[in-house]
Structures are given as structure tokens and as C-alpha cells.
């Protein structure tokens, strides 16, 4: 991992180093600096404008629309800004290559992915112990986290409202291979020291409304900076108190990114993430008779044998199949869009060629 540059001293205004700027970022920014652009990290992006932090302080910048030179800026991006001039704000001229990106399918369910956060190191998947456990949703969020390239950590919140947090943790551990599962309570402070020690770099809190993300974030920050709200007693759901993604430096180093509660988390090109989230099934599949076994009714299927023996819950296999189908559908939509884009380019070139020949004929 790249060495972080020295952070600002206590009490000083946050600098880029406090937001994760390191030697790798400095090296990548050399051509932009020579062009007179300024380094910044985007801490909030919305509707063509963004809030960014620079060594000179926070700025409000204008974002250029997505183009062939790169994706539109997202929260967590490292960006190159043109300086502000009288009457005009700074402009995001370029976005540095992302190390990681947390991507879900867009809310419109089209073929484009929606970047929730860029350059993420740790994804804290929050699960409330004050409501019935929904393992399918946890598996879905873990697939997104693994696909991102960051390290997922499952954070069980509101342990003080659960009669047996230990049993709940063991149950969740069964659907989160490869990820730490931590029991916490922002109210009593249980598990907070352990959680702070596990989190590193840019940390994203991911989970549904009511899971306690903002309350957990305030505990990590040591102050009530993130908005929180009550949870309905009827279904354990909360309101969207966080309306946008926002980044805040953590007191012990690193950056916290709080996200709005997600009602729907669609997969987008998450094949590798699914393999990691369901690594136990992939391990069992190595013993199947056929290498292309679909784990449905094939003879010699080691996965089905594990279900019959009670070693693998049938619910987990069903969840795996469902998410695989969803991801395959999303991939087919993406492939269709790419083919359509290539065909549109081909047709545009053909039209221009015909126009040139038509013009030449008219000049004769």
C-alpha cells in the first residue's frame, strides 16, 4: 500500500493528506500539475456540481459531463481542478484513475452502473440486530463489496437490543466467508475499539435505512456530525436521514464515507464479487463431477450433496442462483448496449462517408 503523506496537525483545517492523498496520488498527478491544475478529492457530488477538498480548503466546483476521456466524477474520486476565475467556479477537468469503485446497477435498471464511491479501502456492511436478519441482502452487499476490490467487514449494530448477539454473529458468519463479523453497539460502546482497529483507509458504511450507519459513524468520529433518525417499531426500517454521500476524516486516520440507506442494491457486472461472497459454494463445486455443473439436478453434484447432508443451507444455494441470474441479466444488458454503441458509431461513420461522396459528386 502506498505511504500516506503526513497529515495536518491537530486542530488545523483538513488537508488532502487527511483525505488519503499519498505518494501514488502525487505521482499520478504529475502531468496535471504541470498543466496548472490543482489536486482535490471530491467529498460530495450532485447534479453537475461537487464539493471538493484541496490543500487551500473546501471548494464548490462544476463537473463536466461524462465523455470519452473518462467517467463522471463520483464521491471519493481524486480530481484535477482548473483554478477559479472571477465569476466562475473551478472546474473538474480530469479524474485520476480509480483504484477501486463500489458500483451497483442504476436505479432506472438500465445497462449503466452507478458509482456509489470511488477509491474505497474498506466496506463496512452494516446489519442491525434490532430487526430480523435478512441474509439475502447481506450476501448481496458483500458481493458488491468484494467486486469493488475493497475489504468487506460485516458490522452488526445495536447489539444492546438483541437477546443473543453471539448467536446472531455466528449465523451471519455463515453467510460471510472471508469477512470479519463484528458485534457492536454505538449506544454502549461495545465492540467500537475493535471496529476502529479493523477499519483502514477510506471506509464506506453500506446498508439499508435503519441499520444504524450514521449513529455508528458518529461514534467513530467522536461527535454527532452525521444526521440520524428514529426507526419504525413495526418493521425496523428507518428514514433516509443521509440524503447524499459525504466524506469526513476520522480522528485516528482514514476517511469515513456515509451513504444513504439503499432500498434496492442491484448487481452490476459482479461475477468476481459473487465468487468471493459465495466462496464456500465455489469450494464445494470443485468436487462436482462436471466442471460446468449448474448445481440444479446434475448427477455427482457436490453442492447438492452438501445441501442434502445439511452442510450447506438450501436458502444460501437459492440466493446464489438468484444473484447469478440477476448478474447474468445485467451483463447481457451491458453487452447489448456496447453492441448498440458500436453499431451507432459504425452508422455515423457511414453517414459521414456518404455525405463526403455526395458533396464531391455535386462539385463535378
CATH topology of the domain at 101-258: Rossmann fold
The SSE string, one letter per element, is HEEEEEEEEHEHEHEHEEHHHH
Secondary structure class reads alpha/beta
The tally of beta strands, per DSSP, is 13
Largest beta-sheet characterization: 6 strands, mixed
Enumerate how many helices there are, as a single number. Answer: 9
CATH class value of the domain at 101-258: Alpha Beta
Low-confidence runs of at least 5 consecutive residues:
6-10, 231-243
Helix content: 25-40%
- Mean pLDDT, rounded to whole units? 84
Spatial shape: flat
**Gyration radius, to the nearest Å?**
24 Å
- For the largest sheet, list the strands in their spatial order: 10-9-8-11-13-12
Name of the CATH superfamily of the domain at 101-258 = P-loop containing nucleotide triphosphate hydrolases
Organism: Streptomyces sodiiphilus
EC number: 3.6.1.-
Family: Belongs to the TRAFAC class YlqF/YawG GTPase family. RsgA subfamily.
Cofactor: Zn(2+)
Structural key phrases:
6-stranded mixed sheet; OB fold (Dihydrolipoamide Acetyltransferase, E2P); 5-stranded mixed β-barrel; Rossmann fold; 34% helix; 364 residues; alpha/beta; 9 helices; rRNA-binding
Protein architecture, described:
Belongs to the TRAFAC class YlqF/YawG GTPase family. RsgA subfamily. Zn(2+) binds at residues 288, 293, 295, 301. Residues 109-265 form the CP-type G domain. With 364 residues, the protein is of the alpha/beta class. Among the domains are: 17-95, OB fold (Dihydrolipoamide Acetyltransferase, E2P) (Beta Barrel), CATH 2.40.50.140; 101-258, P-loop containing nucleotide triphosphate hydrolases (Rossmann fold, 3-Layer(aba) Sandwich). Helix content is 34%, strand content 20%. The protein has nine helices and 13 strands. The chain has helices at residues 23-34, 135-148, 165-173, 192-198, 213-221, 271-277, 279-285, 302-308, 314-363; strands at 38-46, 49-54, 57-63, 78-82, 91-95, 101-105, 113-118, 122-128, 151-157, 180-183, 202-206, 246-249, 255-258. The strands form three sheets. Strands 10-9-8-11-13-12 form a six-stranded mixed β-sheet, sandwiched between helices. A five-stranded mixed beta barrel has the order 1-2-3-5-4. Helix 2 crosses helix 6 (271-277). The chain is flat and about 80 Å long.
Amino acid at each position: 500500500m502506498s505511504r500516506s503523506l503526513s497529515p495536518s496537525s491537530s486542530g488545523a483545517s483538513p488537508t488532502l493528506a487527511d483525505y488519503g492523498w499519498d505518494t501514488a496520488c502525487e505521482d499520478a498527478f504529475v502531468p496535471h500539475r504541470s498543466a496548472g491544475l490543482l489536486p482535490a478529492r471530491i467529498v460530495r457530488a450532485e447534479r453537475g456540481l461537487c464539493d471538493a477538498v484541496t490543500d487551500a480548503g473546501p471548494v464548490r466546483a462544476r463537473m463536466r459531463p461524462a465523455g470519452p476521456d473518462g467517467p463522471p466524477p463520483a464521491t471519493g474520486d481524486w480530481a484535477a481542478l482548473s483554478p477559479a476565475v472571477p465569476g466562475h467556479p473551478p472546474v473538474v477537468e480530469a479524474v485520476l484513475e480509480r483504484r477501486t469503485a463500489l458500483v451497483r446497477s442504476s436505479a432506472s435498471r438500465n445497462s449503466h452502473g452507478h458509482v456509489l464511491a470511488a477509491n474505497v479501502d474498506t466496506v463496512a456492511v452494516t446489519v442491525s440486530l434490532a430487526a430480523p436478519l435478512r441474509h439475502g441482502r447481506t450476501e448481496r452487499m458483500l458481493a458488491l463489496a468484494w467486486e469493488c476490490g475493497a475489504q468487506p467487514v460485516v458490522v452488526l449494530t445495536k447489539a444492546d437490543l438483541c437477546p443473543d448477539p453471539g448467536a446472531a454473529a455466528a449465523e451471519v458468519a455463515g453467510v460471510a466467508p472471508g469477512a470479519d463479523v463484528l458485534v457492536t453497539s454505538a449506544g454502549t460502546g461495545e465492540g467500537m475499539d475493535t471496529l476502529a482497529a479493523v477499519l483502514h483507509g477510506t471506509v464506506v458504511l453500506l446498508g439499508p435505512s435503519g441499520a444504524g450507519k450514521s449513529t455508528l459513524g458518529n461514534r467513530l468520529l467522536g461527535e454527532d456530525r452525521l444526521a440520524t433518525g428514529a426507526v419504525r417499531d413495526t418493521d425496523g426500517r428507518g428514514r433516509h436521514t443521509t440524503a447524499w454521500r459525504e466524506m469526513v476524516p476520522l480522528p485516528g486516520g482514514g476517511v469515513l464515507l456515509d451513504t444513504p440507506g439503499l432500498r434496492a442494491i442491484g448487481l452490476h457486472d459482479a461475477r468476481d464479487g459473487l465468487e468471493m461472497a459465495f466462496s464456500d459454494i465455489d469450494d464445494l463445486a470443485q468436487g462436482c463431477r462436471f466442471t460446468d455443473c449448474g448445481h440444479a439436478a446434475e448427477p455427482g453434484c457436490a453442492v447438492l450433496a452438501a445441501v442434502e447432508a445439511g452442510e450447506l443451507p438450501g436458502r444460501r444455494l437459492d440466493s446464489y442462483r438468484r444473484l447469478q441470474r440477476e448478474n447474468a441479466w445485467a451483463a447481457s444488458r451491458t453487452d447489448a448496449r456496447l453492441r448498440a454503441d458500436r453499431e451507432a458509431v459504425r452508422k455515423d461513420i457511414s453517414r459521414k462517408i456518404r455525405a463526403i461522396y455526395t458533396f464531391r459528386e455535386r462539385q463535378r
